[in-house]
Amino acid sequence: MSRPIVVGVDGSDGSLAAVDWAADEAALRGAALRLVYATRWIAHQLQAVRMSHEDRAGEAEGVLGAMEERVRSRRPELAMTAEEIEDSPASVLLEAASRADELVVGSHGLGGVGGFIIGSVGQEVVTGAKEPVVLVRPDYREDPQGSPAGARRRVVLGLDVTDASDELLEFAFDHAARRDAPLHVVHGWNAPFYHRHRADPDPGVQSEMASALARAVRPFRDKYPTVKVTEESAPGRPAAQLVEAAADARLVVVGRRRAASGSHIGSITHAVIHHAACPVAVVPHG
């Protein structure tokens, strides 16, 4: 039996979108949904100090109750639990993620400035979680039948062929298969120094990179024969290529290498998290 999908809730617009995304994901996986509310949300710490325990419990109960109703109206068949946990948000979410298939959290838009922020809690969760973390934008819209708004159908995967993780490929192919969505695999690479100022990339280098990408993807094409896959291997900045590809995507999948001591988000993953216009799945590997 699969482990649950966990979603962190706090009543924000990003949280509402995250609950919708997590409910759909749980339904497609045949998994239960677990809603968690951390009493000591950092954004409300000063307010929490002034509030009585009863007031805080009442606020948590109200938020969780509203989220449960939202899930029931969207996915009435879904098995669901809801918990208030008195601890810091990052601690609550990381502990919950350790017993889940996936953790879903909301992020916050920056309005007309462009881009998104995930805050210190999101940053700590993304860098510390041992399971995939999905960041959902406040403007996420997808109907309960799994049809995204507009033309956002495909899943985009950013892949480094020199470090092609099976965990990353498995997550992207599995997600595309469950959603009956096409998968677009993007590999951006830097041309060798002596070719960087040429008008056109060296055909030999380009062919070699495209072949490396095809070799990395082939085992998963065979494993998921129903997934329609396209591959893109081109010189340039990988982060910019992924953000551009994500403009018409329902999800972009990127990796985060697990470190022996501590952890960090690589520059490409960091850029995608902050600038992609769709939900972002960060998959730890290695």
From TrEMBL:
Organism: Streptomyces marianii
Family: Belongs to the universal stress protein A family.
Pfam families: Usp
InterPro entries recorded: Rossmann-like_a/b/a_fold (IPR014729), Universal_stress_UspA (IPR006015), UspA (IPR006016)
Domain UspA: 1-137, 152-284
SUPFAM superfamilies for the chain: Adenine nucleotide alpha hydrolases-like
Top-level lineage group: Bacteria
Name this protein carries in UniProt: Universal stress protein
